[in-house]
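Please, structure for the following, as tokens.
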Amino acid sequence: MDIKELNEKIQQEGVFVNTLTGEMQKVIVGQKEMIDRLLIALLADGHILLEGVPGLAKTLAIKSLSMAIKARFSRIQFTPDLLPADLIGTMIYSQKSEEFLVRKGPLFANFILADEINRAPAKVQSALLEAMQERQVTIGDHTFALDEPFLVMATENPLEQEGTYPLPEAQVDRFMLKVIIGYPGREEEKRILRLNVQQEFPATSPVVEPADIIRARKVVRDVYLDEKIENYITDIVFASRFPDQYKLPSLSPLISYGGSPRASINMALASKAYAFIRQRGYVIPEDVRAICHDVLRHRIGLTYEAEAENITTEDIINDILNKVEVP
């Protein structure tokens, strides 16, 4: 298929993106980046981690998305006393049939909101790992495949660190994107205020079927990724691992570990999804640069020296993007 045909196909298949975005913007004022990133994770079959203070419409965003897609939604509030069985479900004994039956937990839905994921201990966080990576859940001797589409959106509150458990690297690496959400602008805040004090809060209507999303995911994979773009993505990830080889010796003492191979895979997939949302059949360097921070932000480890100098992963990614040659 040539680029012209591919562009036409993507414009046909991607019509629902604007409809879906418009439906979500009925209830969410501003936060365009958050809505975009949610759609990227959904279309690229990934998961998303959001970090932001309370009240920035994180819960409302995923709930509105599930309503607009006519899919099942579960909200799990992570707390220190949560058990893995509270997520995945458990075996219960039935006196009537005199056997153990499976009672499925809230993880059996299309859209999962893992609220304040860093409040639960590692045992509970790891219960999500199999579901996120393998798209299946094991309860006792039974393994159940999860329905498609399946998207986990986890939130972290950056304000309180008391009583929280930092996510292990293996868990964080399962998230395709980590998005930092900021406060709305002044005009947006006024619109939020008006929206919430009127008689009825607007509701999201179902405009897309889950089958449309599954079909669109296949089209996203068809988006053309040139070898030059592949090299660009690989160079960015390798520069985070071996900065000396990319004439960035100042970063070596600041990075304890760089992006994993998942960083390269997710950067390619997220770039394709970003191009699809823009109704383009090919990836350009600007697509890679647009999603680079969200893909790498949680995959680069900082040394004590970096923390002492108040250097963040954002600074390191900026340095890498400024140095690596753009095709």
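The chain has a mean pLDDT of 86. The first strand starts at residue 48 and ends at 51.
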